[in-house]
Design goal:
By secondary structure, the chain is mainly β. Helix content is 11%, strand content 40%.
Protein backbone atom coordinates (compact mmCIF):
# COMPACT_ATOMS: atom_id res chain seq x y z
CA UNK A 1 0.00 0.00 0.00
CA UNK A 2 1.24 3.49 -0.85
CA UNK A 3 1.23 6.51 1.45
CA UNK A 4 2.17 10.14 0.96
CA UNK A 5 2.79 12.99 3.38
CA UNK A 6 2.81 16.55 2.08
CA UNK A 7 2.27 18.09 -1.35
CA UNK A 8 3.41 15.93 -4.26
CA UNK A 9 5.13 17.41 -7.31
CA UNK A 10 5.07 15.78 -10.74
CA UNK A 11 8.08 13.69 -11.78
CA UNK A 12 8.47 10.85 -14.33
CA UNK A 13 7.32 7.55 -12.87
CA UNK A 14 9.65 4.58 -12.69
CA UNK A 15 8.49 1.62 -14.76
CA UNK A 16 9.49 -2.02 -15.15
CA UNK A 17 11.16 -3.26 -18.33
CA UNK A 18 10.42 -6.01 -20.85
CA UNK A 19 12.93 -8.53 -22.17
CA UNK A 20 12.64 -10.12 -25.59
CA UNK A 21 12.93 -13.57 -24.13
CA UNK A 22 12.22 -15.47 -20.95
CA UNK A 23 13.84 -14.58 -17.65
CA UNK A 24 17.58 -15.23 -17.53
CA UNK A 25 18.88 -17.92 -15.23
CA UNK A 26 20.51 -16.18 -12.30
CA UNK A 27 22.62 -17.42 -9.44
CA UNK A 28 21.46 -15.44 -6.39
CA UNK A 29 23.75 -14.79 -3.46
CA UNK A 30 23.26 -16.30 -0.06
CA UNK A 31 21.85 -13.64 2.28
CA UNK A 32 22.11 -12.63 5.92
CA UNK A 33 19.15 -10.51 7.03
CA UNK A 34 21.07 -9.17 10.01
CA UNK A 35 23.79 -7.85 7.70
CA UNK A 36 21.15 -6.38 5.40
CA UNK A 37 19.74 -4.35 8.29
CA UNK A 38 19.74 -0.56 8.13
CA UNK A 39 19.46 2.21 5.56
CA UNK A 40 20.20 1.84 1.84
CA UNK A 41 20.04 4.54 -0.83
CA UNK A 42 18.46 3.72 -4.20
CA UNK A 43 21.06 4.80 -6.75
CA UNK A 44 19.03 3.63 -9.74
CA UNK A 45 15.95 1.50 -10.35
CA UNK A 46 13.79 -0.16 -12.97
CA UNK A 47 10.47 -0.94 -11.25
CA UNK A 48 6.70 -0.69 -11.67
CA UNK A 49 6.46 1.03 -8.28
CA UNK A 50 5.39 4.64 -8.67
CA UNK A 51 8.59 6.03 -7.20
CA UNK A 52 9.30 9.64 -8.08
CA UNK A 53 11.37 12.52 -6.74
CA UNK A 54 14.93 13.30 -5.81
CA UNK A 55 16.03 10.96 -3.04
CA UNK A 56 14.96 7.32 -2.58
CA UNK A 57 15.81 4.96 0.26
CA UNK A 58 15.12 1.47 1.58
CA UNK A 59 15.27 0.60 5.28
CA UNK A 60 15.50 -2.99 6.51
CA UNK A 61 14.72 -3.39 10.20
CA UNK A 62 15.77 -6.78 11.58
CA UNK A 63 14.03 -7.33 14.92
CA UNK A 64 14.78 -9.37 18.03
CA UNK A 65 12.13 -11.96 17.11
CA UNK A 66 14.14 -12.70 13.92
CA UNK A 67 11.59 -11.02 11.61
CA UNK A 68 12.43 -8.13 9.30
CA UNK A 69 10.36 -5.13 8.23
CA UNK A 70 11.06 -3.00 5.17
CA UNK A 71 10.18 0.58 4.23
CA UNK A 72 10.74 2.00 0.74
CA UNK A 73 10.54 5.78 0.72
CA UNK A 74 11.31 8.72 -1.54
CA UNK A 75 11.40 12.47 -1.06
CA UNK A 76 10.51 15.40 -3.30
CA UNK A 77 10.14 18.99 -2.14
CA UNK A 78 10.05 17.95 1.52
CA UNK A 79 7.35 15.38 0.81
CA UNK A 80 7.74 11.79 2.02
CA UNK A 81 6.05 8.94 0.18
CA UNK A 82 6.51 5.28 0.97
CA UNK A 83 5.63 1.60 0.81
CA UNK A 84 5.92 -0.62 3.90
CA UNK A 85 6.05 -4.37 4.30
CA UNK A 86 7.94 -7.34 5.68
CA UNK A 87 10.60 -9.63 4.23
CA UNK A 88 11.64 -13.23 4.61
CA UNK A 89 14.19 -15.50 2.99
CA UNK A 90 13.27 -18.47 0.83
CA UNK A 91 15.57 -20.97 -0.83
CA UNK A 92 16.04 -20.87 -4.58
CA UNK A 93 15.20 -24.42 -5.68
CA UNK A 94 17.59 -24.23 -8.64
CA UNK A 95 20.70 -22.97 -6.82
CA UNK A 96 22.20 -22.73 -3.36
CA UNK A 97 21.33 -19.04 -3.14
CA UNK A 98 18.57 -17.23 -1.25
CA UNK A 99 15.56 -15.30 -2.49
CA UNK A 100 14.16 -12.28 -0.68
CA UNK A 101 10.35 -12.32 -0.60
CA UNK A 102 8.76 -8.95 0.18
CA UNK A 103 5.14 -8.82 1.36
CA UNK A 104 3.68 -5.30 1.29
CA UNK A 105 0.92 -4.08 3.56
CA UNK A 106 -1.66 -4.59 0.78
CA UNK A 107 -0.55 -8.28 0.75
CA UNK A 108 1.03 -8.06 -2.70
CA UNK A 109 4.36 -9.89 -2.90
CA UNK A 110 7.58 -9.71 -4.88
CA UNK A 111 10.57 -12.04 -4.90
CA UNK A 112 14.09 -10.71 -5.49
CA UNK A 113 17.44 -12.31 -6.24
CA UNK A 114 20.58 -10.50 -5.11
CA UNK A 115 22.91 -10.48 -8.11
CA UNK A 116 25.68 -9.12 -5.89
CA UNK A 117 25.98 -7.69 -2.39
CA UNK A 118 28.66 -6.24 -0.12
CA UNK A 119 26.69 -5.37 3.01
CA UNK A 120 28.77 -2.34 3.94
CA UNK A 121 28.79 -0.88 0.42
CA UNK A 122 26.25 -1.92 -2.24
CA UNK A 123 23.65 -4.43 -3.45
CA UNK A 124 21.91 -5.30 -6.73
CA UNK A 125 18.37 -6.75 -6.58
CA UNK A 126 16.64 -8.44 -9.53
CA UNK A 127 13.10 -9.73 -10.00
CA UNK A 128 11.77 -11.27 -13.21
CA UNK A 129 8.50 -12.84 -14.36
CA UNK A 130 7.80 -14.63 -17.62
CA UNK A 131 4.91 -13.14 -19.56
CA UNK A 132 1.91 -15.13 -20.77
CA UNK A 133 3.03 -14.93 -24.41
CA UNK A 134 5.89 -17.30 -23.57
CA UNK A 135 8.40 -15.21 -25.52
CA UNK A 136 8.99 -12.22 -23.26
CA UNK A 137 9.45 -11.35 -19.60
CA UNK A 138 9.08 -8.35 -17.29
CA UNK A 139 11.79 -7.48 -14.81
CA UNK A 140 12.90 -5.04 -12.13
CA UNK A 141 16.40 -3.97 -11.09
CA UNK A 142 17.47 -2.05 -8.00
CA UNK A 143 20.96 -0.62 -7.43
CA UNK A 144 21.47 0.15 -3.74
CA UNK A 145 24.32 1.83 -1.88
CA UNK A 146 25.01 2.47 1.78
CA UNK A 147 25.95 6.13 1.18
CA UNK A 148 24.18 8.87 -0.79
CA UNK A 149 27.13 9.26 -3.15
CA UNK A 150 28.22 6.21 -5.15
CA UNK A 151 31.91 5.46 -4.82
CA UNK A 152 33.63 4.87 -8.17
CA UNK A 153 34.69 1.35 -7.22
CA UNK A 154 31.17 0.45 -6.07
CA UNK A 155 29.67 1.90 -9.25
CA UNK A 156 31.91 -0.39 -11.33
CA UNK A 157 30.86 -3.42 -9.30
CA UNK A 158 27.17 -2.51 -9.63
CA UNK A 159 27.51 -2.15 -13.39
CA UNK A 160 29.43 -5.42 -13.63
CA UNK A 161 26.76 -7.34 -11.72
CA UNK A 162 24.09 -6.02 -14.11
CA UNK A 163 26.19 -6.63 -17.23
CA UNK A 164 26.79 -10.26 -16.19
CA UNK A 165 23.17 -10.87 -17.17
CA UNK A 166 23.21 -8.59 -20.25
CA UNK A 167 20.99 -6.05 -18.50
CA UNK A 168 23.32 -3.06 -18.88
CA UNK A 169 20.93 -1.32 -21.32
CA UNK A 170 18.04 -1.35 -18.84
CA UNK A 171 16.04 1.93 -18.69
CA UNK A 172 17.21 2.99 -15.23
CA UNK A 173 15.84 6.00 -13.39
CA UNK A 174 18.60 7.60 -11.30
CA UNK A 175 18.13 9.51 -8.05
CA UNK A 176 19.95 12.60 -6.87
CA UNK A 177 20.79 11.26 -3.42
CA UNK A 178 22.64 13.88 -1.41
CA UNK A 179 22.63 15.01 2.20
CA UNK A 180 20.33 17.87 1.19
CA UNK A 181 17.85 16.03 -1.06
CA UNK A 182 17.53 13.17 1.44
CA UNK A 183 16.89 15.45 4.39
CA UNK A 184 13.41 16.31 5.62
CA UNK A 185 13.19 19.65 7.38
CA UNK A 186 11.83 20.01 10.89
CA UNK A 187 8.66 21.52 9.45
CA UNK A 188 7.49 18.17 8.12
CA UNK A 189 5.48 16.31 10.75
CA UNK A 190 4.96 12.56 10.65
CA UNK A 191 1.40 12.27 11.92
CA UNK A 192 0.78 8.77 13.38
CA UNK A 193 -2.96 9.10 12.72
CA UNK A 194 -2.26 9.34 8.98
CA UNK A 195 -0.55 5.93 8.86
CA UNK A 196 -3.48 3.69 8.11
CA UNK A 197 -1.23 0.59 8.01
CA UNK A 198 -0.05 1.45 11.33
CA UNK A 199 1.37 0.09 14.45
CA UNK A 200 3.83 1.56 16.91
CA UNK A 201 6.52 -0.64 15.38
CA UNK A 202 5.75 0.61 11.87
CA UNK A 203 6.02 4.24 12.95
CA UNK A 204 9.31 3.53 14.71
CA UNK A 205 10.62 1.86 11.55
CA UNK A 206 9.72 4.85 9.42
CA UNK A 207 11.26 7.35 11.83
CA UNK A 208 14.61 5.54 11.58
CA UNK A 209 14.94 6.83 8.00
CA UNK A 210 14.89 10.47 9.11
Amino acid sequence: MFYCLGIMLTFPFVSSAVLNGTCPFVTPRELDLKELDGKWYVAAVVSDMKIQGDCAMILFNHKSDNTTDVSISWISNNTISYYNGSVELTVDSNTTGDLLMVTYTDQSTETFSFLDVEYEHYAVLFACYNNEDGTSSTYELWKLTRTPHIKDDDALKLDRAVANYSLQDSPFIHFNNTENTCKVSGGTFLNPSSLIMTSAAAITLFRRLY
